[in-house]
Amino acid sequence: MAKITKTLIEAQKPSKDGVKGSNHLLWDSELRGFGVSIGQSRRSFVVQYRLPNGQSRRKVIGRFGLMTVEEARRQARIILGDVANGRDPVEDARSSGQGYTVDQICDWYLERASAGKIIGRSRKPIKASTLTMDRSRVDAHIRPLLGHRIIATLKLGDIEGAQADIAAGATSKPRVGSRGGATKGGEGVASRCMSTLHSIFEHAVRLGEIDKNPARGIRRIASTPKMRWLSQAEIRKLGIALREAEADDEHPTGIAVIRLLLLTGFRRLEALSLERDWLLDEESAIHFRTTKTGAQRRVIGQPALQLLSAQADSGSRYFFPADWGEGHFIGIVRVLDRICHRAGVEGVTPHVLRHTFASVAGGLGYSELTIAALLGHASRGVTQRYIHIDEPLRAAATAVAEYIDELLRGCR
Hints:
By secondary structure, this protein is α+β, with helices and mostly antiparallel strands. It folds into 3 domains: 1-96, Double Stranded RNA Binding Domain, CATH 3.30.160; 120-224, DNA polymerase, domain 1 (Orthogonal Bundle), CATH 1.10.150.130; 232-408, hpI Integrase, Chain A (Orthogonal Bundle). It is built from 15 helices and 7 strands. It has helices at 6-11, 69-84, 89-95, 102-114, 128-146, 156-167, 187-206, 232-247, 252-264, 268-272, 302-309, 332-343, 350-363, 368-375, 391-408; strands spanning 24-27, 34-38, 43-50, 56-63, 279-280, 285-288, 296-299. It is elongated.
């Protein structure tokens, strides 16, 4: 613990606990309760205090960069002085009609969710992957449009107006620097942002931070899902491009992930975050600890097993480790874009590869239930608990993977 200064804050790096988007707190050595929350994209001054009943409260003072350390320290002294006189500044602000801004309630949510203190619909703490997406939507779209607004003054029209702005591209930004991607708007993004904002407000109401959810009753834009998959001719082209790229020193991890996505139908993050301990050789399956539909065992075909076995063990817990640090590889989208450009195939995302696996399985005559089991879906109310790994399912996984592998190798 040290005295908080501008230099000290600027030297801090986001948490490296394996959860992108998690915050850590830096406390001041001189003023007890004064601190800074260090996040992936922002740093906020906070003050923490305890009420006579033992309840702990934390209030966001302001954002580093918009106010100086000394300004924040002075504000923290005032707040702590009010507490010493028997007042509760958080409750005072709420009852006076000032209350939280959207920025502040988003900070509250992201901080508590990162610490596992907010329970989601599955009755479990919010997953790291969900939190990463929430943070991305908040920082890229919600804050720029609504961050400064006081929640108590928001009307449904304000929320739906922000949705329309996001859909129209008001928050779109080009890619900056060598890392990260462009910020895109559109109807689908707008709808998902409103879902995230509604959820944040609902958690805040449920936990007593705000009185009502101003997004309740919102009519989210209906976006038409893009059902795109690769034709057999496109899979062959992709196979040629993969072999050429491999010879031209394209990123080997990216190439391996693309192949795995095609051979398994995994979701992007399921493949990227795949851990070595999750592989069950005897069952020809992966034991995912958590997925979009909960923990599950998912069978994979022999070509996929062989691909995983061929991945060098660098000491990382991941099959596809990052080039540096302790995390997993994340650059799949750019590698896929380069491969597809080389192949002359357009409109391909990691999810298109998942659709391609399902399309090939359907073309081979497998039932909807079998395809759902291979993809880790729940089909027509049939949940994963009723789907068991047996020999026919293993045979199906291998048949689909072998068919795709033969197309990639130009044998079909």
